[in-house]
Amino acid sequence: MKYSHNLFLLAAFACSLSFAQAEEVGGRWGTEEREREYYPIVNVPIPKDLVIESGAYCLLPDGRMAVGTRHGEIYILNGIDEKKPNPSYHLYATGLDEIFGLAYKDGAFYVTQSCELTRVTDTKRNGKANRFETISDAWGYANYHEYAFGSKFDKDGNLYVALGLSNSYDSYAFLRGFALKVSPDGKTRALASGLRSPGGIGHNEHGALFYIESQGPWNCSCSLKAVTPGSFQGHPASFNWYKFVQEMGPMPVAPKSGSRIITEKERVKQLAPYAVIFPYIRMGRSITGFVVDRTKGKFGPFEDQLFLGDYTQSLIMRATTEKVNGVWQGACYPFREGLSTGILNIEFTQVGNLLCGGTNRGWPVRGIKPFALERLDWSGKMPFEIKRISIEPDGFKIAFTKPVDATTGNDPKSYQITTFTHPYHGGYGGPEIERTKPTVKSVKLADDGLSAILVLDNLSRGHVHEFDLSTLRARDKDELLHRNAYYTVNEVPAAK
């Protein structure tokens, strides 16, 4: 899992950052005081006698929130959306194991735990679960690293499970490193191989299935990846199970360590490239559960965008995706730091606030509490932000949340862009290499100031395009709350 990183290797890689990179990180995320003006953090009190290390959430039809914990409990909370919350905690179920997936349908919870997918019901209708049915135990489970993450239901009633490897390099238990599809009748089919240490699985803003992958072998940074039938997600440790999953088709050609993802994609036809790369440390170190904003503006100007938690750095990020030439890609953006513990999962509440929580178990995190529940609210004030970046045939279109001043918005020098890629290799993590600095040839700011189209002299496939827009100003003279964004280019669209 994302917070099972080898600490020595993490520390060594972090120490390899140059002074300039470290200074850059501080500049990008050192905005907590300003963030508070737009998205204050509200503590959700936990009774002193309870330990709530939440790993999954599920909003119930009546507005209550179900919380699944790593200890294997399900609590149902009422009152989390009050201005000064003091919710009631009702213990619904115990005896499960590290809940990292929680869905609800027809009066039953569907719980993804390390060893199985379980339907949990209260047949006596007394508020306590009394029936636990195995829906699928089609995978093996032997040690702590073998976490299982579950999705919400899709429109056809299917659930999806992402299985972590037995350790960073090996798959000893059955189907570890696979993503599985579980149909309503419990039939389980392999969907994708090559996962390493997932942090969450679910659907993106367009309804396509994605999962979060952690930094480690064959993954130099955390990333968001599309899960399609028969796809290979990049880590070959799970190849040993192909003879048992005929639905996956032939085993992929083994990838070459030390190559590049864009090169290996041509060799290994099943290989799914990273759709969104989160630059290591600058945009998280161990990204976890994600959710799409469907609040219809109740959470601000980011409707239909992905929100993601990060365990190590105790923060929340945004991401947007698009499909180009049949391949998914997109961008990530800073959003909110300063949360009190390692974030394992997030969920929108009935009124459109964002519930966040987790633990600091086992690995160091920036947040100071061993566990916590917190809520992000939108204050109603509009932040000046990079709203969304999308690719054009010869550059990018950048949308903003507030109109941009014409003087800075039409100046190509206001748009600083650099690019980098990573080696695609079996080593743990890896450096940013092959840096380039494309020239912004021209900028066209829309009449309403809410978007700009950039023409570049070059777009580099397989590279993260890193934006620094610190000199831009809004028409009301406001500075960007977050000046950076990162777009992963897998494909370039044809000219219209």
Low-confidence stretches: 1-28
Shape verdict: globular
Helix content: under 10%
Mean pLDDT: 94
Layout of SSEs?
Blueprint: H1 7-15, H2 19-29, H3 32-38, E1 41-43, E2 54-59, E3 65-69, E4 74-78, E5 88-93, E6 101-105, E7 108-112, E8 117-121, E9 131-136, E10 148-150, E11 159-163, E12 179-182, E13 188-193, E14 200-203, E15 209-213, E16 222-226, E17 231-232, H4 261-267, E18 276-278, E19 287-292, E20 306-310, E21 315-324, E22 327-336, E23 343-348, E24 354-359, E25 371-376, E26 386-392, E27 395-400, H5 406-409, E28 416-421, E29 433-436, E30 440-445, E31 451-456, E32 463-468, E33 484-489
Parallel strand pairs: 13-17
Antiparallel strand pairs: 1-25, 2-3, 3-4, 4-5, 6-7, 7-8, 8-9, 10-11, 11-12, 12-13, 14-15, 15-16, 16-18, 19-20, 20-21, 21-22, 22-33, 23-24, 24-25, 26-27, 27-31, 28-29, 28-32, 30-31, 32-33
